[in-house]
């Protein structure tokens, strides 16, 4: 449904419109909001965190940052709760509000509570509640779900705390990602369990009162692929959120992965959609998550097609672009040289836990090609080009340097030069192509003539299963002066991403 790194989906419906938000960890702008009218075709409409002053991501380590948001709507206001993890300046839960999901969103307001994965629930009686997940220390990975009342006027938690759940299975780990609903007069608690890798699962419990006690579904988990082999086309199903269509159909959005090699996937955790039916007062979530389902019985609502090539001719960067951590200065420009993306060279590099001069788009296909045209005159130790980024310790850079073209990878924090070629005068075109686990770098000294640079690269080291963390690969333009001050810049004429 949303290919590429779009994990931890949360959905809400307002009339005939559906809105969805996902985690972004250390990437900025954060918490993208998508809009659909048929649950199949989605368009990005903005980000909840799009202003540097809203929340500091400075110094956040790889796969720290913004975890598992929940999006809800009540009485004309949209509410978004989330957790900032491993923030050097501040960490914890927060809530934001907006009258329009496309923004602007308010500055974050801190919320009390331990752990991660807060979620809001607005009851029929006018009261609102917040759930969250925290470790208990009873054994490694054991967590519990807590509940407190939420005051929408003061944007604060009030009243007593209730512990309502700690997992469906004996010895359960990482009961998390909780969402509350009131359906047919009963309260339903939907949670994830088993961790976000191969043992991920969706479980559900219900109660007659919001504070419990909650009984688990005897058929738990209601959705998982943990019993399937690692070579299954879709693995790691979990972290779900329910939604009902205007005509009474139920569906669930969830994260899962499409591995290219066993359980390894460079695309990261993606957002999927599966049908839900009800039996004996319990939801039944589609059996297996498949590549294709019958679509919801909603009128088709396509959005205008997005061009495969960004000509950099607008006043601002397209919302699909992301950068690492909070930008504290404007190091990119679309106006200094109209029709080009200009990146200013700065000392920060992709190897630093910083905000380097890099803008990337999510890899959304196992087989794709990405190209750009670069105009750059490098000085000593300066480079600019195209990068494949998993995190600061795992990435690939195809760059123009003072010594010519260079292809290098960084794995486990160690940089290795894979191939070099003589300098190309004037504008050089650079490209990456992917086929499953294999990437190939190439360059074009003149239009229509492409040359490979180096051998194929085994991209398994760019997967979260090897590199760690929760994100997928992003690809895009990059420039750095590698620790030295510089007044130089690199101009990118266009960037094209196409599935193969």
TrEMBL record:
<dbReference type="InterPro" id="IPR051795">
    <property type="entry name" value="Glycosyl_Hydrlase_43"/>
</dbReference>
<comment type="similarity">
    <text>Belongs to the glycosyl hydrolase 43 family.</text>
</comment>
<feature type="site" description="Important for catalytic activity, responsible for pKa modulation of the active site Glu and correct orientation of both the proton donor and substrate">
    <location>
        <position position="117"/>
    </location>
</feature>
<dbReference type="Pfam" id="PF04616">
    <property type="entry name" value="Glyco_hydro_43"/>
</dbReference>
<feature type="active site" description="Proton acceptor">
    <location>
        <position position="8"/>
    </location>
</feature>
<dbReference type="GO" id="GO:0005975">
    <property type="term" value="P:carbohydrate metabolic process"/>
</dbReference>
<feature type="domain" description="Beta-xylosidase C-terminal Concanavalin A-like">
    <location>
        <begin position="309"/>
        <end position="497"/>
    </location>
</feature>
<dbReference type="InterPro" id="IPR006710">
    <property type="entry name" value="Glyco_hydro_43"/>
</dbReference>
<dbReference type="GO" id="GO:0046556">
    <property type="term" value="F:alpha-L-arabinofuranosidase activity"/>
</dbReference>
<dbReference type="InterPro" id="IPR023296">
    <property type="entry name" value="Glyco_hydro_beta-prop_sf"/>
</dbReference>
<dbReference type="InterPro" id="IPR041542">
    <property type="entry name" value="GH43_C2"/>
</dbReference>
<keyword id="KW-0326">Glycosidase</keyword>
<keyword id="KW-0378">Hydrolase</keyword>
<dbReference type="InterPro" id="IPR013320">
    <property type="entry name" value="ConA-like_dom_sf"/>
</dbReference>
<dbReference type="Pfam" id="PF17851">
    <property type="entry name" value="GH43_C2"/>
</dbReference>
<protein>
    <submittedName>
        <fullName>Alpha-N-arabinofuranosidase</fullName>
        <ecNumber>3.2.1.55</ecNumber>
    </submittedName>
</protein>
<feature type="active site" description="Proton donor">
    <location>
        <position position="176"/>
    </location>
</feature>
């Amino acid at each position: 449904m949303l290919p590429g790194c779009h994990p931890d989906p949360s959905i809400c419906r307002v009339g005939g419109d559906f809105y969805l938000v996902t985690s972004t960890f250390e990437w900025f702008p954060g918490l993208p909001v998508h809009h659909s009218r048929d649950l199949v075709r989605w368009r990005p409409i903005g980000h909840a965190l799009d202003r540097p002053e809203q929340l500091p991501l400075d110094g956040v380590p790889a796969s720290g940052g913004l975890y598992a948001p929940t999006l809800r709507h009540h009485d004309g206001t949209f509410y978004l709760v989330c957790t900032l993890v491993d923030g050097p300046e501040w960490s914890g839960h927060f809530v934001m509000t907006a009258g329009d999901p496309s923004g602007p969103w308010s500055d974050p307001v801190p919320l009390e509570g331990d752990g991660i994965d807060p979620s809001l629930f607005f009851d029929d009686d006018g009261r609102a509640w917040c759930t969250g997940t925290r470790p208990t220390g009873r054994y490694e990975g054991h967590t519990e779900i807590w509940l407190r009342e939420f005051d929408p006027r003061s944007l604060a938690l009030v009243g007593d705390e209730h512990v309502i759940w700690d997992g469906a299975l004996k010895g359960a780990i990482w009961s998390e990602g909780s969402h509350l609903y009131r359906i047919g007069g009963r309260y339903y608690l939907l949670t994830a369990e088993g961790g976000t890798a191969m043992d991920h699962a969706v479980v559900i419990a219900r109660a007659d009162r919001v504070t419990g006690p909650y009984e688990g579904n005897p058929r738990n988990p209601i959705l998982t692929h943990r019993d399937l082999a690692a070579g299954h086309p879709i693995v790691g199903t979990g972290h779900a959120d329910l939604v009902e269509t205007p005509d009474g159909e139920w569906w669930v959005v969830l994260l899962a992965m499409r591995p290219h090699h066993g359980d390894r996937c460079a695309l990261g955790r993606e957002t999927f959609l599966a049908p839900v039916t009800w039996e004996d007062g319990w939801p039944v979530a589609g059996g297996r998550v498949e590549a294709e389902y019958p679509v919801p019985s909603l009128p088709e609502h396509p959005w205008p097609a997005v061009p495969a090539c960004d000509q950099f001719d607008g006043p601002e960067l397209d919302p699909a672009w992301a950068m690492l951590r909070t930008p504290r200065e404007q190091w990119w420009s679309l106006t200094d040289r109209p029709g080009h993306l200009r990146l200013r060279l700065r000392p920060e590099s992709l190897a630093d836990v910083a905000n380097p001069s890099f803008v990337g788009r999510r890899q959304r296909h196992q087989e794709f090609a990405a190209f750009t045209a670069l105009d750059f005159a490098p000085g000593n130790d300066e480079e600019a080009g195209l990068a494949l980024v998993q995190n600061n310790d795992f990435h690939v850079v195809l760059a123009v340097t003072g010594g010519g073209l260079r292809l290098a990878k960084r794995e486990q924090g160690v940089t290795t030069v894979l191939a070099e070629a003589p300098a190309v005068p004037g504008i050089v075109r650079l490209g990456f192509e992917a086929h499953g686990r294999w990437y190939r770098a190439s360059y074009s000294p003149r239009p229509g003539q492409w040359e490979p640079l180096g051998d194929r690269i085994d991209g398994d080291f760019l997967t979260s299963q090897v590199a760690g963390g929760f994100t997928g690969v992003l690809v895009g333009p990059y420039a750095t002066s590698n620790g030295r001050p510089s007044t130089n810049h690199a101009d990118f004429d266009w960037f094209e991403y196409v599935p193969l």
